[in-house]
Amino acid sequence: MSDPDIKALLGRAVEDEPPLTIDRAEVFRRGRRKLRNRRFTEVGGVAAGVVVAVVGAVVLIGVTGQDPDRLTPATPSTTSSGPPNVTGTSEYPPQYEETGGHAATLTDAFRTAGLLPAGVDVDPKPGKPAHPYFIKAMGTYHLDVDLVGDDGAGALSVEVSPVPVGTTVTCDDLKPSAEASCSANRIDGTDVVLVEETSSDGRRSISTVAVHQDGTKVTAYVSNAKSGVFKPEGDPPLSTDQLARIVTAPELVWG
Amino acid sequence: MQDRDTEFGEFLDSRAAVMRRTAYLLCGGDWHRAEDLVQTTLTKIYVAWPRIRQDGSIDAYSRKIMVRAAIDDSRRAFRRRESVVDQLPETPTYRGFDEAVDVRRALAKLPAGQRAVVVLRYWEDLSVEETARTLGRSEGTVKSQSAKGLATLRRLLGGVNHE
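Output (C-alpha cells, whole complex):
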C-alpha cells in the first residue's frame, strides 16, 4: 500500500458520515465554565498550597503535576523540532458525563431546598431535563442551566468541589477586574465572596464562592447571557442574595 | 470575551467537521465518541484560544489535545473491557458500506498508539517529526509504530479491493 492508497482507505471509513450534531452552545458554555473555574481553582490552590506546606505530605494535582489544560501548544509544523515539552498526565476529563450517583443526590438537594426562587424557570432545551441537574465531569459536580425570570434571563452555573478544610477566600484572592466590585460577607457562619461585573458588550455577571466547614466549595455564577447569546441585555435572572443562598446551602455537600 | 467568542466561533464552524473525521479514525470508528472527543477538544481550545492564536498553533494544539484524549479514552475503554470493534450501530446506506466496515474494524483492532500514528501520518499528512512532536514520542517510535500499524492493516484488509 502506498501513501495515497492508505489515505484513500481511511477516507472510505468516513464516507458514511452522519450529520454533525456537536452542540455549539454547549462548547461555549463549557469553555466559559472552565475559564471561570480556573480563576476559582487558582484561589483554592493558593490556600491549599499553604496547607500542604504545613502538612508536608500531600500531592494535590498528581505525581506528574501538570494540569492537562495547560499543555504547552504544539510548535507549528514549520519550525525546527526539539524535545517534546509536554509532561502532562494521562488524566483527561471523562468523555461521558455522569448524572447518577452523587450528582443525582445534588440534583435532588437543589430542587428540594428550593434554591430557584419563585418566578424563575428553566429555559428548556431539546433533549435535556426541564429542571436544573448536576453532572459529574472533570472530577467535580456541575450544574449548568439557562433561566428565565421576571427580572431577566441568563445562564446559571454551579460547581461543587472539595478543598482542604479551613480554606478561606477573600476579594484579594479572587482578583476581580478593575471594573468589578467585590464584597466579602459572612452568611450563616460561612464566608461568601461576591464579584459583580459588567463588560463592555453588555454582559452582566455575578460570581460567588463559599467554602463550607466540611471543605465543600460551592461556586455559582449567573449572567444575563443565555448560552449562545453574544450581545446580552437586561439583568441576570438571579440577584446576589439568591446566588449567595445557593453557595451557602447546607444541602450542597461534596460526596 | 467578545473577540474570543467571535473568532473561536468561526474556527469551530469551519473546523468541527474536519476534526470529527480525524477523531472518528482515532477512536476506531464510533461517531458518538468522535463527537465527544471533538467537543472536549474544542472546549480546551476555547480556554487556550488567546495563547494558541497568538502562537499560530491552533491546528497543532487541537491535534495534540485530541490525539491524547483519544488514546486515554481507548485505554479507559480497554480497562472497562468494552470493545469498540463490534460497535457498528450505523445502518448501511451505500454500496461501499462493507468496505468501510472492514476498514473501521481493522483500525479498531490497532492499539490506540499505533492507530494514532497511522492517522496522523497518513490521514493528517504529518511528517514523522511532526507526528513524534504531537504524540510526545521519539521519531524512532513513530517509525516502528507506523510500520507495525500498516502491516496489521495490510494483513486485516488483505481481501479488500483497494481500487
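Chain B touches chain A through 76 residues (CB under 8 Å).
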